[in-house]
Structure formats: C-alpha cells, structure tokens
Amino acid sequence: MADREDAFRKIYEANSKKIYHLCYGYTGDDDAANDLLQETFLKVWQNLHKFRNQALISTWIYRIAVNTCLTYLRSEKRQAKDELTPQIAENKREEFSEKNEQVALLYKCISKLEESERIIITLVLDEVPYPEIADVSGISEGNLRVKIYRIKQKLTELYNQYERL
C-alpha cells in the first residue's frame, strides 16, 4: 500500500499543475478548477491499477481530466465560454498584477475557443510534447501543427479585440 501511495504522490506532483491549468482553461474559475483537479486525481487513484503503460501516464491523466471537465460542463449545463462573465473577469482583474491581467485575458480568450481547440492550446501552454498532444487529441502530429498554428491566430485576434476595449 505504501508503494502505491508513493507512486501516486509522485504522479500527482509531476502532473497536478498541468491538470489544474487544463481545468482552469475549461472553467475560468479557480474553485471549479481545483474541484475538477481533485476529482481527476481521485479517478486516477481509483483506477491506477488499470493503467497498462500503453501510453504515457500523463497522457492517460489528461484524458481523465478532459473527460472530467466535459462531464462537469454538461452536468452544469454550461458552456465553458460562458464561464468568464464580465463580473468574474473584473473581480479577477483586481486581484492580478499587470502580467497576471494578461494571463487572465489569455484564459478568457481561450474560453472562447471550441472545445477541441481549448484542449490543444492548454496542453501547448503546459509544454506537453506534440506527440503526446496528438495522442490525447486523437489527430496526427502533422495535422496538430496546423491546428496549433490556426488556434494561435484565433487567440491573437481575440486577444487584440479585448486589448482594444
């Protein structure tokens, strides 16, 4: 049992920040992201014995996190893009320094993307290797590079629109 707990602790330490960012990218809400992070790792703990090393463990965890986030959004009958209301964004803005304001704005822009685009760009921001992102998203690496380029263009347009406001 101690070995299992040690293994889990290492897995959590290696992946929790990236999974939090993924969850935050879906919800735009710190509390919801933390809840989804906990739920994701509860599922990891409960299913660790089922992991078969056919993929990287981080890929397996990302899949669990994505499914957890999607289930949450469906059960709350919300779309992630509606999560960052102007009031929430305004409250967050007061908490952030100028650099953090830019990060908050980036996440607001990310929340406007389509679901598959949010998954991909969040993984890119977390510096997940492209082969792993391709595996998580179920597309070829070549197609992934094209998608990332287009997502970055979209994000730049969205970001510039907000900057003008």
UniProtKB/TrEMBL annotation:
PANTHER family: RNA POLYMERASE ECF-TYPE SIGMA FACTO, RNA POLYMERASE ECF-TYPE SIGMA FACTOR. Residues 105-155 form the RNA polymerase sigma factor 70 region 4 type domain. Keywords: Sigma factor, Transcription, Transcription regulation. Residues 11-78 form the RNA polymerase sigma-70 region domain. Belongs to the sigma-70 factor family. ECF subfamily. It comes from the Bacteria. It comes from Mucilaginibacter aquariorum. NCBIfam families: sigma70-ECF. This is RNA polymerase sigma factor.
